[in-house]
Amino acid sequence: MSADTNRFQTIQVQALTRVEGEGALRVELDGDRVKHVELNIYEPPRFFERLLRGREIREVPDIVARICGICPVAYQMSAAHALEKALGVEVDATTRLLRRLLYCGEWIESHALHIYLLHAPDFLGYESGLSMAADHREVVERGLEMKRIGNELLEILGGRAIHPINVTVGGFYRAPDRQRLKDLLPQLEWGLEAAMHTAELVAGFDFPESTIEHAQVALKHSEEYPMNHGEVASTDGLIIPVEKYDQHFAERHVRHSTALHSVRLPEETPYLVGPLARFNLAYDQLPPRSRRLAESLGFAPPVTNNFRSIIVRAIETACAYEEAIRIIGQYPSAPPPRLLKLPQRAGRGCHATEAPRGLLYHCYEVDQRGCIEAATIIPPTSQNQAQIEHDLKQFVPSVLDLPQDEATRRCEQLIRNYDPCISCATHFLSFKIERSKQP
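User: That's the sequence. What structure does it adopt?
Assistant: C-alpha cells below.
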C-alpha cells in the first residue's frame, strides 16, 4: 500500500476473527487524517444480567461462568465476592487462599494461550500458532504444556478445567485434594522457569511505537499483586473502594455496537484495563522472583506502549506460577475450607476482580428470599472498547505508507494487544481498503 493523499480512504474488516464473538472494524480517512473509527460489535446480546433475575444465589456462579469459556473463574469469583458482601458473609482464610490459587490457574492457562497461539504469531509473521509450530515446534509445545498445567490446577480446585463447578457463594462445595496439589508442585516449578524463558523471548520482539493517552485502571492492594481483592485505582491518581465504581465509571450505548462502551466520569473519556494497568499500578506487589524477572529485563513502570503488554503477560504468568507454588506450600498446614450457610436477607453487594484481560465488575441486589433482583456485570472488553477505537485512530496514520499486508498485520497486532475475549478461530483479519479516485 503506497502513500497517497486521496481525499477519502476506507479500511474495513468485515468480520474480526481470533476474538470471541462477532465484530467488524471500519476506519474512514480523509487523506492522512482519520475521520472516524468504529469497532462494530454486531453479535446479538445474550442478556445474562436479565437471565439472573429470580435465580437463587447459589445458582449464580455456575451461570455467570458460562459468559466466557476462557476466564470463567473471573466471573465466578466476582459474583461470589459480591454476593457475600450483599449477605454480610465473610469466608475463612483458607477459602481466600484457595480462591487465589484457583485464579492463578486461570491466569496461567489464559496468558499462555494468548502469548503462544494468538499474539506471538503476529510479531513473528506467522498466520497462526499452528503455522508457527512448523518452524518452532519446541517453543509452541512449551506454551501448550504451560497452559495444560494451568488447566490441571483448575480441575483440581474447580472440579473441571472449563466452567468449574466447585465454586459457590460462601466457599467451595468440597476441599481440593491436598496430595494432588502437592504432586503438581514439580510441574509448577517447571512452569515458572518456562514462564521466565517466555518473558525473555517476547521481550526481544520488535514493538511498533504506540502510546496510550488515557488513564489505566486496575485493582490495587497493599500486600499482594491484585487478583481477587483491592481498591479501584488509576494511573492518574484515582483510588476508590469498589462500592464507588459506578460513581466514576459508566456504560454507554453506541449506535455501531451491541456491546456497551465504558467511560470515565465526568469527562466521558476512554480508559484501559488489563495487564499493563496492573503492572503499572501494582509493580511493587509482584512476588520476589517475578519482580527480579522484570528487573532483569529492564522492564519497569511506567509502560505506555500497549504492544509491550505481551511482556507483562509473560511476567504475570510467572507471577501466577510463583503464587501457586507459595499457596500450595501453605495449604497442607491450613484447616480445610468451610462451606458457609447463607443467611436469608436482602442486600446489595459490589465487587471487582482482575480477569486475565482486566478489571471485571459485578453488582447484585438480593431479596429476602435469597434471589437475585438485579445484576450488573461489566467485563474487561467492554471497558476497553472505547480505548481500542482511540488507539486505532492514533495509530492508523503511522501505517498508511506500509505495504497492505504489513499495515494489516500492524493493525491486527494493536487489536490483539487487548486480548479481547478471543475465540478459537485461527485466521487473520481480512482488511478491505477502498480509495477514491483522484480528481
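DSSP finds 13 helices and 14 strands in the chain.
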